[in-house]
Amino acid sequence: MKEVRWPARLRLPRTRRGQRRLVQGLMVACVLALVPATWMRLEAGDRVGTTADAPVREVAVVFGAGLWNGRPTPYLAHRLDAAAELYRTGKVKVVLVTGDNSRVEYDEPDAMRTYLTGRGVPDERIVSDYAGFDSWDSCVRAKKIFGVDRAVLVSQGFHIHRAVTLCRSAGIDAYGVGVDEPRDSVWYYGGVRELAASGKAALDALFRPDPRFLGPEEPGVAEALATGAR
Fold it and tell me: Which residue ranges run through the membrane (predicted)?
């Protein structure tokens, strides 16, 4: 059998000094990756809990988490279940669903709306943000476009600290509900992905850029609240 040779650029250092430098470099990279995520956990502090712990707020914000064949993925469905529970128990009056609708064939907010109405949330109490392309965009648009000042955020536990930190940086008094999930491969993938995403999130919180699409103010949340007050 022909011997497989690694390309020179992929070979591990042969000297002790080189190996030590490689290990040190990997350790520094790991620390740098953990710093933003650790900061966000500290920043969110005691503002994360369960649906039972959540304070009474007028608005819940549910972040998109993908579709399968036009329907919410299991993780997104669990977020929506938690939002429906918040509505049923009187913790919130309106649910703002924010997600990606950048393609005609992919519409997270409408799929989220359909799921919620099927769980007993009235259609007139649901508001759709079609330009929530990432967590920062969703938080900024909730504040600047929909006029949300205080909200309960709903996401998985590995993401909720980042969501709370970003929405607070955007000017929203936010409390996060972290939805429990089994420790399966998707959960571990989400945790690893969160380490990578936390670096960008830290920069967003620091420099506060405009979202990819801002647009004019929308009265959807105010109108939904007014409908509920009649």
Answer: 21-40
Q: Give the type of residue at 131.
A: A
The tokens describing 48, both together, are 């994360």
Radius of gyration of the chain (CA): 21
SS3 80: helix
pLDDT at 40: 75
Which secondary structure element, helix H or strand E, spans residue 28, and what is its range?
helix 16-44
Count of beta carbons in the 10 Å neighbourhood of residue 55 = 12
- The CA distance from 104 to 68, in Å, is 15
| CA 112 – CA 115 distance, rounded (Å) | 5
Write the pLDDT tens digit of every residue in 143-190: 999 999 999 999 998 899 999 999 999 999 999 999 987 777 776 676
Q: Hunting for tokens 């988490």 — which residue is that?
A: 65
pTM (2 d.p.): 0.83
